[in-house]
Specification:
mainly alpha, globular
Length: about 475
């Protein structure tokens, strides 16, 4: 079930009304109801995959209690190891089995040995990377002494399967979300209105901006050899805005839906494309994932409390693993490694103040944006040869002859191009006004006539200029 689909449009109000007006007398009953609703939401794709999320939840619920009750460090480590192994084995099989088999065969072929090894037709369960990391944070935090294990299975299973953020985050921490499941919740009108504001803004970003750019990006990336470096760069810039509007739009909707049920989820994006350094951009982009890798992987390697070479290696490895988390292909490894190299290099320059001059703000903002954008070639390209061709074309001056497709031809019609241009200008103006806040806070601080005018304006704009002929899905569902 997808946020921008008809089934969810029916599902959400039914669950909302039953939650607040039928099962509202006891928060434990509410938790049980949310768990059932979350399983219905997830099972809408494939009921069989519910067994995986239940198995992961049961494993970490059991090992969490064992870790909390362990009498010595060795016992705690063994139970934590069990949690990590079970979760990563499930994730590894469904997401990386074919990748490692194919890589194994390719490695032997380089040595002149041909292996006849077949792969499996494995379907990647939606959201498995997200709920696996969320569940793992629970056992790791118990091991580190930051959290007491819960003995209420409904509370824990609901935490793992909470439907607003189940399939694409934000990747919540148990220290934030479990306490919210463990207390009484009363309907808060202001919190619900806040949630609706975020849902509206998220739908605008997704249906109008992200889906509006999808046609242009898909057109170029489907046949990259037919296009010049200038066209490829334009399409890649479009993809940067597409994936930002798509994923941050999803996150806004998820946070908004959670608020309708009395829960506060962590912020996942803070207008990252206006950052002045690459480090700042990364820290404001997919915050729940970047902080997860920082806290549970980077710090485990020693973080910055090691020698400078080891510190740089820790950063690079963190990005490399982050790239692999996004997808089982060499493309994503290169994407992660490239970002890791840039991040480490910039960190080194800033630490030792190699550059003792400041650039104009507009240049400072373009540098991280362009670096991030060009790296996305490896993220979006369908094959490695296509990725390298496009990467080289972007840096080849001879590829910048304005030939082939004109700008209007990248859209379905001239009218759609002008409609989208107006939508994009509106989007950027609001993003500039938001700054490091969020849409909810921006509108909340406005006067009542402006608030209601904004609601009606965005709703009408979505209806008039939304792209409803595209299959309702989100880019990050594939991860």
């Amino acid at each position: 079930m997808v946020f921008n689909s008809l089934p969810f449009l029916v599902f959400l109000p039914i669950v909302f009304l039953l939650y607040w007006f039928v099962v509202n007398r006891n928060f434990r009953v509410q938790n049980a109801f949310l768990l059932v609703a979350s399983y219905v939401f997830y099972g809408w794709w494939d009921w069989w995959f519910l067994s995986l999320i239940i198995a992961s939840s049961a494993t970490d619920f059991f090992t969490g209690i064992r870790i909390g009750g362990a009498t010595n460090e060795r016992e705690k480590r063994l139970w934590l190891l069990m949690s990590v192994v079970v979760n990563l084995t499930i994730l590894g099989f469904f997401k990386y089995f074919n990748f490692f088999v194919e890589s194994f065969v390719d490695l032997f072929q380089l040595a002149g040995v041909s292996l006849d090894v077949s792969t499996l037709s494995i379907i990647l369960p939606v959201g498995i990377s997200f709920y696996t990391f969320q569940s793992l944070s629970y056992t790791i935090d118990i091991y580190r002494g930051k959290l007491e294990p819960t003995r209420d299975p409904i509370t824990f299973f609901s935490f793992v399967a909470f439907f607003p953020q189940l399939v694409a985050g934000p990747i919540e921490r148990a220290t934030n979300l479990i306490p919210q499941f463990s207390r009484e919740r009363n309907f808060d009108y202001e919190q619900a209105v806040s949630g609706c504001r975020l849902i509206l803004w998220g739908l605008f970003k997704k249906i109008v901006i992200a889906d509006g750019l999808a046609h242009t990006v898909d057109l170029i990336y489907a046949n990259p050899y037919d296009h010049s470096g200038l066209t490829i760069l334009f399409a890649t810039i479009c993809f940067t805005f597409q994936i930002y509007a798509d994923f941050s739009g999803y996150s806004d909707i998820a946070i908004g839906v959670a608020r309708l049920f009395g829960f506060d989820l962590m912020t996942n994006f803070r207008t990252p494309l206006f950052s002045k350094t690459f480090q700042e951009l990364w820290r404001r982009w997919h915050i729940s994932l970047s902080t997860w890798f920082r806290d549970y992987f980077y710090f485990s390697l020693g973080g910055n409390k090691v020698s400078t070479p080891r510190w740089l290696l820790n950063m690079f490895l963190t990005f490399l693993v982050s790239g692999l988390w996004h997808g089982a292909s060499i493309n994503f490894l290169i994407w992660g490694g490239l970002l890791g190299f840039i991040f480490a290099l910039e960190a080194l320059i800033l630490k030792y103040k190699v550059l003792n001059f400041s650039l104009p703000t507009i240049i400072q903002m373009w540098y991280p944006f362009l670096v991030f954008t060009i790296a996305f070639i490896f993220f979006r390209a369908q094959t490695m040869p296509e990725a390298f061709y496009m990467f080289n074309a972007v840096f080849d001056p001879s590829e910048y002859a304005i030939t082939g497709m004109s700008l209007p031809s990248l859209f379905k019609s001239h009218a759609i191009m002008w409609q989208f241009s107006a939508s994009f200008i509106l989007f950027m103006l609001i993003e500039i006004l938001i700054g490091k806040k969020d849409f909810d806070l921006l509108i909340q601080q406005s006067r009542r006539p402006l608030r209601w005018g904004t609601y009606y304006f965005l709703a009408i704009w979505i209806i008039l200029f939304g792209n409803f002929d595209i299959e309702p899905t989100f880019v990050y569902f594939q991860f």
